[in-house]
Amino acid sequence: MNRKSRKRRTAAAAVLLWVAVIGPWPAWDRPFREAGYYRATLDRLPAMPPPVGPAGRLRAGFAAAQLPSVDQPSGAWPRQHLFATLGAEAPGAERLQASVLALDDGAHTLYLVSADLLVITPALVAATLDALRESGPPVDRAWIYFGATHTHSGPGGLGDGIAEQAILGRFRRAFVHETGRRIAGALRQAQRELVPVEVGHTAVPVSEPLGNRLTPGGPTDPHLDILAVREPGGRYLAAALAYAAHPTTLGGEPRAPSADYPGAVARHLRGRTGAGVLFLAGAVGNMTVVRDDLRGPDGSDRLGALLAEAAARALPRITYRREGRLAALRFPVSLPAPTIRLTHWAALSPVLPWLLLPGEASLQVADVDGLVLVGVPGEFSGEESLRIREAGRRRGVQTMVTSLNGEYIGYIVPDERYWAQNYETRWGTGYGPHLGGYISAVMGEAIARVAPPSPR
What we know:
- The chain has 456 residues and is α+β, with helices and mostly antiparallel strands.
- Helices cover 31% and strands 23% of the residues.
- The chain has helices at residues 3-21, 36-44, 122-135, 162-168, 173-192, 260-273, 296-314, 351-356, 382-394, 423-426, 435-450; strands spanning 25-26, 56-57, 59-66, 97-104, 109-115, 144-148, 195-196, 198-205, 210-212, 223-230, 236-243, 276-281, 287-289, 323-324, 326-334, 346-347, 360-368, 371-375, 379-380, 398-402, 411-412.
- Helix 3 (122-135) crosses helix 5, helix 6 crosses helix 7 and helix 9 (382-394) runs parallel beside helix 11.
């Protein structure tokens, strides 16, 4: 073989290697209902019936635990790379916490868990489950409904995967294990403090703060979802809230750790009612705060007060019941092949995304006597959640969609928004143009399995 031939072969091999690893590849656009991953997920559901029993006397308990802190000033607190956060002892630092609401119907106990963190990672879930096994009888993962406030001014170091560390900073094993231990401790405390209660739920519109960052002026999900728990005498024990505004009201400059506006909601509502407050990030994908007077430290506090006021007004108008039933279902969802598109016809090679992105995630659904909570392993679009609400209404139930349910697959946007020019769709959506429609369809099937029949 002469020298020129060797050069041509080397060049051809380099081109093939580049295309194999980098791309471009053809961009497939196959509707999800025709895809094998959709059929594989639907085939799993009949084998996973949710445990449902008769309605029983409802009991509840609430507990909270402060998240681990550090003694050193700035730099010692685990940092996440989206928004730089100073040390826990920096001026103005807030106490970040985890909250647990335990609900019991006599047959099952459901635990709603939220923490003042950007995300709940699989490593943190594992640390919590390990701590629970060490402190008493294990708790079925399907009955622990994880969420986060999604504050962008909290600690990092939460994930041990390559992609997680690229976003959240170097994995801090000791920090994660201690955080899991404290969450488990709050769960055990809530378990011990179960008392007879009345439970009710509602959703009230609070539209003024919200805007659509994919489509300015486009649809938003303005509902503040409320699950309220009070003792038979009328004293409020706890309230679980979900809202879709991104907790980025404090901006991106370095600061002391903060729970952002969800912390202000909890503080104001607790001051007005005495109730423990658990806040869950709702369908925060493409939902943002658009009012300038609700940004910055003072604006964040005003937004918290605004939402707390809406919740406080709604609490007395809720219909409460002393008996009810609980159901829970958690199941694996097969994901589309990773696709990071360059144009309508071409995409990056799936090789690197396949190595970095999961091929499967989990969806969780819990029914609290007619309030169906849907936990999504990513940031679910506020536009798409409107369709889920409508699906719930057709079955006679209220739905509460929450993001960051212990796993993360990125932003889940409506199919029609996939080509919007925004970082959510350009870099934050790694599973092609039909992920939003696919996840919504699976959610509808899951809601139908746990929700009671629509009243005639």
